[in-house]
Specification:
Helix content is 8%, strand content 46%. The protein has 158 residues and is mainly beta. The strands form 2 sheets. The chain has a 7-stranded antiparallel sheet, with helices on one face. A two-stranded antiparallel sheet has the order 4-5. Strand 7 and strand 8 form a beta hairpin.
């Protein structure tokens, strides 16, 4: 099977769904050129060495992670996320109940952050050039990278 060697942020979709609404945070959301970062917060393994040189691996059950969405200062999504943040922080009943999903529809990547909470409000910067706002989220991370080839079955005429 041939490997596609083309990437475009136009293929990236993202949403946050939780108390206070559902918001697009992928392509068309005014994402800055620095984009979106998703990363595990902890190692999945601890290796312990025995006195005789034997090795024991301990698989960690938890899968904590974080996502950082960098939006242009002028993106209207900043206001929507700010409203959602303020609503959720008003009560513990609203906190930590978000599901964030990202996908690269052409590569087949699917990433979810469940039981997610805002880490903090973005740092606000006013300077000579328009800055970006960094929205950080923490939760339970699941990353499934795709095969790297477009899904042609969804296209007509093929």
């Amino acid at each position: 099977m041939p490997v596609s060697n083309t990437y475009s942020f136009l293929s990236v979709q993202g949403t946050i769904v939780g108390p206070g609404g559902a918001i697009n945070i992928g392509n068309t959301a005014g994402v800055a050129s620095e984009g979106i970062t998703v990363e595990p917060s902890e190692d999945k393994n601890t290796m312990t060495m025995g006195a005789d040189g034997a090795v024991m691996h301990s698989l960690h059950a938890a899968s904590p992670g974080r996502a950082v969405v960098r939006l242009l200062k002028t993106s209207p999504v900043n206001a929507m996320l700010s409203l959602m943040y303020n609503f959720q922080k008003s009560s513990a009943a609203n906190w930590g109940g978000n599901t964030i999903a990202f996908s690269d529809v052409d590569r087949g990547d699917v990433i979810t952050l469940t039981s997610a909470a805002f880490r903090k409000q973005p740092t606000v910067v006013y300077n000579v050039e328009g800055p970006m706002n960094e929205w950080e989220f923490e939760g339970v991370l699941n990353i499934q990278l795709g095969g790297g080839t477009p899904n042609l079955s969804s296209m007509t005429g093929f």
